[in-house]
Write a structure and sequence with these properties.
Layout lengths: L19 E4 L8 H14 L4 E4 L15 H10 L3 E5 L7 H11 L5 E4 L2 H7 L4 E3 L8 H9 L2 E5 L6 H11 L3 E14 L4 H5 L18 E4 L5 E6 L2 E9 L4 H7 L3 E4 L6 H12 L5 H12 L4 E2 L22
Parallel strand pairs: 1-2, 1-11, 2-3, 3-4, 4-5, 5-6, 6-7, 7-11, 10-12
Antiparallel strand pairs: 7-10, 8-9, 9-10
Helix pairs in contact: 1-2, 3-4, 5-6, 9-10
Length: 321
């Protein structure tokens, strides 16, 4: 399945409803100084509307930055950004549930639930459901809305037809999709970064921090395949949906998430802002993303119901076979 070119609006800016740009949570174990500078620059320079904070992948990383979050949040809010606190995608103990309960005591903070432990804690108060929660049909969507979800970030692997059906059923709930960055595919209690370095999880030495965009994994034949980020398995390719954002807006998506990587994310945000404003087209946006991000491979297959690592309909170029 693929999107029809004929039904596309002439530009992203022609689509209905206001669209907002979102800087998603940092998935990687960046050093505290670098992470602090990253959020300072996002607050002061990035033209985004929403910024996610919090640790999503590994609870062991939390102590490195927990004390910094209040200052980061204050600076982001002072800069006019809405701040969303993202929770772990895999909650494995009472301590982690306790952290979510503490977050739920913050009445003015929008919390993103990324697993069902958090959904249980946040039920009955407005909250966001993150893309790690599998919402594949209208029944699940209604379940989330009935428990207080006011914003939902849809899973990455959904095709366009499913996205349109879910947006139609969402009514007043805000709907979000990631449009840039590696795609999380799985998360496990085991730490693949530690194992790859001959270490146990309990003595991991935080080696996931040695590969700040994830550790590339090749097949036995040497072909690029996936990326490993501690407990998390990511796509080897980078999701890039500039050519599809107009259709997504028409379907009802009104928030577009950029997943942070070590490239210039302020410049990446500027590209997607220009695209949303109709100042550049999808082809120019994709070329700019490649210039900024460097040696990466782009993909958009999931949205077109083909293998997720494939790139369908490159703007200005013939469609792949």
């Amino acid at each position: 399945m693929s999107m029809s070119v004929n039904k596309m609006p002439s530009s992203v800016s022609d689509a209905p409803s206001a669209a907002r740009l979102v800087m998603g949570p940092v998935l990687f174990h960046w050093q505290a100084d670098y992470l602090r500078d990253f959020y300072a620059r996002i607050a002061d320079e990035a033209d985004v509307d929403v910024v996610h904070v919090g640790e999503v992948v590994c609870a062991k990383r939390m102590p490195f930055f927990d004390r910094e979050w209040p200052d980061v949040i204050e600076r982001l809010q002072r800069a006019g950004k809405q701040v969303v606190y993202s929770t772990l995608a895999l909650v494995m103990g009472d301590r982690e549930v306790g952290i979510i309960r503490d977050l739920a005591e913050m009445p003015d903070m929008l919390i993103e639930a990324n697993d069902f432990s958090a959904i249980g804690v946040l039920a009955g108060r407005p909250h966001m459901v993150g893309p790690y929660v599998n919402i594949y049909n209208e029944g699940t969507l209604r379940y989330m809305i009935e428990r207080g979800a006011t914003r939902i970030s849809l899973p990455w692997e959904l095709p366009e037809s499913s996205i349109a059906s879910l947006c139609a059923a969402a009514r007043d709930v805000e709907m979000e999709m990631q449009v840039f960055g590696r795609v999380p595919l799985a998360i496990s209690a085991r730490c693949y970064s530690a194992r790859a370095n001959g270490l146990h999880k309990d003595g991991c030495r935080y080696v996931c921090g040695d590969t700040p965009d994830g550790m590339n994994v090749d097949t036995l034949d040497g072909a690029p395949f996936l990326a490993v980020n501690g407990l998390q398995t990511l796509s080897g390719t980078y999701l890039e949906l500039s050519a599809e954002m107009a259709d997504l807006r028409q379907a009802g998506i009104n928030l577009f998430r950029l997943s942070p990587h070590r490239c210039d994310m302020v410049a990446i945000a500027t590209v997607y802002r220009q695209l949303l404003g109709g100042h550049i087209g999808p082809e120019e946006a994709r070329e700019a993303v490649l210039d900024i991000a460097g040696d990466i491979t782009l993909a958009n297959g999931f949205l077109h119901a083909i293998p997720g690592a494939d790139l369908y309909r490159i703007p200005g170029q013939p469609q792949p076979e």
